Automatic annotation (TrEMBL):
<dbReference type="GO" id="GO:0051287">
    <property type="term" value="F:NAD binding"/>
</dbReference>
<feature type="domain" description="NADH:ubiquinone oxidoreductase 30kDa subunit">
    <location>
        <begin position="12"/>
        <end position="123"/>
    </location>
</feature>
<keyword id="KW-0520">NAD</keyword>
<dbReference type="Pfam" id="PF00346">
    <property type="entry name" value="Complex1_49kDa"/>
</dbReference>
<dbReference type="GO" id="GO:0016651">
    <property type="term" value="F:oxidoreductase activity, acting on NAD(P)H"/>
</dbReference>
<dbReference type="GO" id="GO:0008137">
    <property type="term" value="F:NADH dehydrogenase (ubiquinone) activity"/>
</dbReference>
<keyword id="KW-0560">Oxidoreductase</keyword>
<dbReference type="Pfam" id="PF00329">
    <property type="entry name" value="Complex1_30kDa"/>
</dbReference>
<dbReference type="InterPro" id="IPR001135">
    <property type="entry name" value="NADH_Q_OxRdtase_suD"/>
</dbReference>
<feature type="domain" description="NADH-quinone oxidoreductase subunit D">
    <location>
        <begin position="260"/>
        <end position="424"/>
    </location>
</feature>
<dbReference type="InterPro" id="IPR001268">
    <property type="entry name" value="NADH_UbQ_OxRdtase_30kDa_su"/>
</dbReference>
<dbReference type="InterPro" id="IPR029014">
    <property type="entry name" value="NiFe-Hase_large"/>
</dbReference>
<dbReference type="InterPro" id="IPR052197">
    <property type="entry name" value="ComplexI_49kDa-like"/>
</dbReference>
<dbReference type="InterPro" id="IPR037232">
    <property type="entry name" value="NADH_quin_OxRdtase_su_C/D-like"/>
</dbReference>
<dbReference type="GO" id="GO:0048038">
    <property type="term" value="F:quinone binding"/>
</dbReference>
<protein>
    <recommendedName>
        <fullName>NADH-quinone oxidoreductase subunit D domain-containing protein</fullName>
    </recommendedName>
</protein>
Length: 498
């Protein structure tokens, strides 16, 4: 990774040039509080150089008295939510931001409350405020406003959605999240690298393996640790099992619960349970927790365990392909999925869409290929894309990605997995970044360590980026298709509500 430290005046100009002229994707923007070192506040922007498999980190310092810089969002839409997040959590103002409303803070949080500043204690009890939060509003004859959530009919996490509609047709859609903000970033401050791992694993329950791997990679990159080849292959195995499990869930959930084609849900959820039980049998946890750690993995796998994995996973993938074919040949289901929830490629690129949400719209990006990690340098998955960007494209893409994941699972299970599975990681002072292509998309963790303890940890779930573009897929669709659009992205509330 290359780090470019620039002056406050040059910061916005350089970032704009990297994005607009060189077309580099903005992968992460975050802030740091460096006042104890006499360096004010820091703003850091991570760009991806996919072609050369490199990262470029652009940094600048802002004065303590007036931490303000010219907003990047005016020209780089990918920075939209990141800058609002920094305003709430650090009090860093992005001058000229087109939507400077609160993002994390709700109406009950008092003004000038910035929890990620170092002088804000994690157990601070705040007075109850009543700050206004204006939602986008449209007036006109026949225009109605429909609020949905934060409590929903299904067993899901809380989120509020506001529709402006004309009849059944959606004109605008806006989401309001952060009802379950947990303070994970604050709680990890001062922890040892070992103590922080359980927090990382629980950011989003369906991405435990991916987040733990991103965290491990960040620390290994920081300490220049070489992980044994056996552990590298087993890391591929676990994250691909996680991908197959969640694609199984989504294929069933989109068609079954999103449209009423309930046979898909009934069988799909049954098949998913096979994968969850496999994980518990082999790894001791239904959510792949406790296996991936800095330095490698917790144990090697026996021949019997590898055979169990290969046999069970093959059965699951075959069953899901049969189930997918059943749905694909249903005219009623195709009618609901095709041309619904279209995300245009230019919109996906502008907002920095990640994972299936991006590849379903023709954006050819995948961290496993663009920034190889674990054993993906040797085990190269085929990156699949579609151009239409509708719900059907995202549904079909999941079915095809399961087949690619199965190839990787078979490759690992058939290879020689003998040898060391773990090495000691020395927690050196400095900063490291880990990137993983989770089943939901590019997952990042940036870690700062001093004297063996974490001073700042920045986990970024792909949902954070994809929620920011959520309003773009609603307009033009009808209200009953909103749950289907939502399920086709399958974004994590918990992964966003850090």
């Amino acid at each position: 990774m290359t780090v470019e430290r620039v002056s406050q005046d040059a910061f916005t100009l350089l970032c704009n040039r990297l994005s607009l002229e060189f077309k580099l994707p903005l992968s992460l923007l975050y802030a740091t509080d460096n006042r104890k070192k006499g360096k004010g506040f820091g703003v850091h922007v991570l760009f991806s150089l996919d072609a050369s498999h490199e990262w470029l980190l652009v940094e600048t310092s802002l004065p303590e008295a007036n931490p303000t810089y010219e907003s990047l969002t005016k020209t780089i839409m990918e920075a939209h939510w990141y800058e609002r997040y920094a305003m709430d959590m650090f009090g860093i103002k992005a001058e000229g931001h087109p939507d400077p409303r609160r993002l994390v803070h709700h109406e009950n949080v008092p003004k000038n409350t910035h929890p990620l500043r170092k002088d804000f204690a994690w157990n601070t009890k705040m007075e109850h405020a009543n700050e206004p939060y204006p939602m986008h509003h449209i007036e006109g004859e026949g225009i109605f406003e429909i609020p949905v959530g934060p409590i929903h009919a299904g067993i899901i996490e809380p989120g509020h959605f506001r529709f402006n509609v004309a009849g059944e047709r959606i004109i605008t859609l806006e989401g309001k999240l952060f009802f379950t903000h947990k303070g994970v970033e604050k709680l990890m401050e001062g922890k040892t690298v070992e103590e922080a791992l359980p927090y990382i694993e629980r950011i989003s329950g369906d991405m435990s393996a991916s987040f733990s791997l991103a965290y491990a990679l960040a620390l290994e990159n920081l300490s220049h640790t070489n992980v044994p080849e056996c552990a590298q292959q087993l890391r591929v195995l676990v994250t691909e099992l996680e991908r197959i499990t969640m694609h199984t869930h989504d294929i069933a959930n989109m068609a079954g619960m999103g449209t009423g084609f309930t046979v898909m849900a009934a069988h799909g959820f049954r098949v998913k349970e096979k994968m969850m039980r496999l994980s518990e049998r082999v790894f001791g946890n239904r959510f792949w927790r406790g296996y991936i750690a800095p330095g490698g993995v917790s144990k090697s796998l026996s021949v019997e365990e590898l055979r169990d994995i290969q046999k069970t996973t093959k059965e699951v993938v075959d069953e899901m392909q049969d189930l997918f074919e059943l749905g694909r040949h249903s005219d009623g289901l195709r009618e609901r999925l095709e041309t619904t929830g279209v995300l245009a490629k230019d919109v996906a690129v502008a907002f920095g869409a990640l994972g299936l949400s991006a590849r379903g719209s023709g954006v050819d990006r995948d961290v496993r290929r663009d920034h190889p990690y674990a054993a993906y340098g040797e085990m190269k998955p085929e990156v699949l894309t579609f151009e239409k960007g509708d719900v059907y494209a995202r549904w079909k893409l999941r079915a095809l990605e399961m087949i690619e994941s199965m190839k990787l699972v078979e490759a690992v299970c058939s290879s020689n997995n003998e040898g060391a599975t773990h090495v000691e990681v020395q927690a050196k002072d400095g900063m490291g970044i880990g990137a993983v292509e989770a089943w939901r998309g590019e997952t990042l963790v940036a870690v700062y360590v001093e004297n063996g303890r974490i001073t700042r940890c920045v986990p970024r779930d792909p949902s954070f980026c994809n929620w920011a573009l959520f309003g773009a897929i609603g307009p033009g669709n009808i209200i009953p298709d909103f749950p289907l659009c939502n399920k086709s992205l399958d974004l994590s509330y918990s992964g966003t509500d850090l």
